[in-house]
Prior knowledge:
Layout: E1 15-19, E2 22-26, H1 36-41, H2 48-65, H3 69-81, E3 92-94, E4 97-102, E5 111-116, E6 124-128, H4 129-133, E7 140-146, E8 152-158, E9 165-171, E10 176-185, E11 190-191, E12 197-203, E13 209-216, E14 225-229, E15 236-241, E16 247-253, E17 258-264, E18 273-274, E19 284-292, E20 295-302, E21 311-316, E22 326-329, E23 335-342, E24 346-353, E25 356-363, E26 369-372, E27 380-384, E28 393-399, E29 406-411, E30 417-422, E31 434-442, E32 448-456, E33 467-471, H5 488-491, E34 496-500, H6 510-514, H7 522-537, E35 546-551, H8 553-564, E36 571-575, H9 581-585, H10 593-600, H11 607-616, E37 629-635, H12 644-656, E38 663-668, H13 679-696
Parallel strand pairs: 33-34, 33-35, 35-36, 36-37, 37-38
Antiparallel strand pairs: 1-2, 3-4, 4-5, 5-6, 7-8, 8-9, 9-10, 11-12, 12-13, 13-14, 15-16, 16-17, 17-18, 19-20, 20-21, 21-22, 23-24, 24-25, 25-26, 27-28, 28-29, 29-30, 31-32, 32-34
Amino acid sequence: MNTRPAVTAPTHPPLVRSFHGQTLVDPHAWLRADNWREVMRDPSVLDADIRAFLEAENAAADAWLAPHADLRRTLVKEMRARIKEDDASVPATDGPYAYFTRFREGGQHPLICRRPAGAVAGETILLDGDALAEGKAYFQFGDAQQSPDHALYAWTADEAGSEYYTLRIRDIAAGTDLPDVVTETTGDVLWSADGRHIYYIRRDAEHRPSFVYRHLLGSDPANDVLIYEEPDKGFFVSLGRTQSGRFGLISCGDHDTSEVWLLDLHAPLAPPVRVEPREPGLRYGVEHHPSLGGVESLIIETNADEAEDFKIVTAPLASPGRASWRDLVPHKPGRLLLSQSAFRDHLVRLEREDGLPRIVVRALKDGSEHVVAFAEEAYALGFDPGYGFDKTEIRFTYSSMTTPSEVWDYDVESRARVLRKRQEVPSGHDPARYVTRRLMAPAPDGELIPVSLLFARETPLDGTAPCLLYGYGAYGISIPASFSTSRLSLVDRGFVYAIAHIRGGTEKGWRWYREGKLAKKTNSFTDFIAAGEHLVAEKIVAPDRIVAHGGSAGGMLMGAVANMRPELFAGIVAEVPFVDVLNTMLDDTLPLTPPEWPEWGNPITDAEAFATIRAYSPYDNVAAKDYPAIFALAGLTDPRVTYWEPAKWVTRLREMKTDSRPLLLRTNMEAGHGGAAGRFDRLEETAMVYAFALAMAGAATGL
């Protein structure tokens, strides 16, 4: 049933523009609210015609989903039963206190807490997320940091889903917030060493993080001092801190170039100092060591000197520029350096080679190294440096598609591991019931595409199994083969869950990313199609029971493969899909457009980029042909993929497609890019997606 909305869209004149001698006609441009900036702050000011259109689409989607209400309730019930409702994180010690988060039974939002270091009692609730979210349609914590003397707690929260965060400062002893309130920040928080100043970032008129301010506690935020303004509209700004605690970091960059400024946290009135001027294509990140070889130094990971997969260099703090950089960890092609943290006696880095992550510990006194790695065929590994510089203990998290998440403390000198937490699945989980594998699917140009699989041991791999095939493939983001309790609801119903690690990510090094961007973007699409075809050819999944799934840039992937190979998929789920690529990249007033040009190309100034994007942009390539069933999800206050992209795409699909398969659009009118904020509310959205996938793969009766 191709459910259509009950309300017909009003008639508006098309938007007609010319670029590079080509005429673009956009009949659905009216769905872009002229006051979109105000809508981000206050969804109630949305144009009445647009609201009526979105609500009609929601009603139509709800009508289609209604017969699957029992299935959705069952899915939510079993997914919730796998969540430890009163779960808590492993405390992280910072001086006299250990900080952690926990949930109360039935609670949607975290409680941020602390207790005396080394104690198991004496908890203080610093922030109660459930209480703070009471009565609000949306609530999401951002950054939160304790002051150096542990008397205050700076915290941020987004109350619309638009990624405008309000900064507040909690007096821990009093349990109340100070009068200092800063609105519309990015959520980043950084304390000066004396605990009297806070650094934060504001966005510009186009929602881009651009301005770094310094706030003096007790003063009027209107008098806060602007200490950095980003001159390039294509650069975003973020705040960080070195592990030593000496410097704050103002990191500026796009997807191709970066620049870092040092903030001396012990001299908060001093201006920031640039490490190395920006240079197109040069990327670097900074750590600090007070006495490396007897010299106060910076430790820098960089792609300088054609080190595509990055290397680590050192430089004296007194002369931090590139002319002083000396190799510490040389470049090795195919070994991608992901992050590093510097401690007094050790340098710890996270890297990935042959698609698998590992932690490498380097002794600074003699350069000797050892590796923390694992034997599973596919797994996810994360590294948390925690607080402190003089310590020898680090923390890492490990999981695989069959193994629940584990938190380990690791002593880098003794190499002793202590398991601090293993994820509990209250309803039960037996890893032996499941199988994880990694396949290599041949792409049309001969590249081999890694594909991670999860399936139940009893699932027959005879070409009859349904499949959910997930993909992303952009920005160099690698999709980890990690554990998820939710996806077991599909796997337990006979699905093969597959992740296609396509080009555009960095699973096989920086080259893998470079080969999936700009003029080579279509490699991402053909890789995903090749992964699906390989699963069919190997008789792992059924040729008519594959449901594709992707979100954001992965949603663009969904739109592209729907145009290119619609017959390969029984259904497509596109969450907050970036599908109106050409029009968005032509609109430099949108938050992400200038920073995205290094990823997709600038079609305003570059005729070749215009032609390339126009040739694959999903919205611009919808054709009069049969399409698979499609479920698109959007967020009204989403600043990353604006709501009108999926709305326009679905409208054009309705006009053009020649089949009667379901075409659904559901917009969360009270959320942004991440969907619902509450942990149980998110299950409702997941259940909608899974019910659609089960129905399209012919497995919806398997309750």
